[in-house]
Amino acid sequence: MDFVSFFTPTITLALLSAVALLVLFVGLGTVVSGRTSVIDSRLDRYAGRQGPSPSKTGKEGKRFDNLVNEKRGSAIGTDLARADLKLTPGEYVAINLATVLAGALLGLVLAPPPANFVFGLIGGVIGFYGPRMYVRFLQRRRLDAFNNQLGDTIVLLSNSLRSGYSLLQSMETASKELAPPMSAELTRVTREVGLGLTLQEALANMLRRMPSDDLDLMITAINVQHEVGGNLAEILDNIAHTIRERIRIFGEIRTITAQQRLSGYILTVLPIALAFVMYFLNPEYISRMWQDLCGLLMLFTGALMMGMGYLVIRRITDIEV
Hints:
Blueprint: H1 2-33, H2 35-47, H3 54-57, H4 70-83, H5 89-110, H6 116-162, H7 167-177, H8 182-194, H9 199-209, H10 213-228, H11 232-256, H12 258-281, H13 283-286, H14 288-291, H15 293-317
């Protein structure tokens, strides 16, 4: 009986370690061997080229990206572009699998039995959602920085138009004067136009990477002016004033609702942190929570109510401008 209780976790750890190493080597192999097809696909996306047929690619074209279907791969690619991560959808999926295995292994190794399997499951869930939360964090931070730069960028474009530059020349000039992420996005627009896309298509691609309402307003004004004519510099000045006012009002709202948002974070994190502290201080006392059915029901109910409370607080403090 002692031999079986010792041997089963050992076999489990060995299998998980082998799978983690296999995923790691497969991911490294796809990163090293698939750079040419990545460059071809990005040129296809920029200039609208026709890629090679499946019959010409053969086995060399089969990479880890083939495990991701086209629709899901397109969604992952859009999320990675918004976060400015230089990864393909297949590489992201491989990293996500590796984080799931690493989280499960850490939970199994660090926690004492029999709670190690519970912590292994928790570690796997954290490893699954961790990369997604990191990508969302990078997207939100990059979009906030982009929105903060947009008002000054529109003023710079308007002044360049008044000085006699075209819109594309104004964007190229602004890309050299501004900081990322605005400079990177404007540079990408000018490069896409140089590779054969129209200005409207390049701006639509920028809006896909930066889903900003203010940017949508500016692009709509540019497209309307392109169709019917008018003074684009004056239109951009009016849009810049509207954007600056929206940013000012949004900042005031965030200042007013800061205490409520902080209360939501504290009320959500405090019970979880207290449970970890109690587990390390007295494991036998709190381990009854997942050893009995009543304790499991209490944990599930508490987690559900905390999640609902957090979502309600976020909903109340999320005021649109």
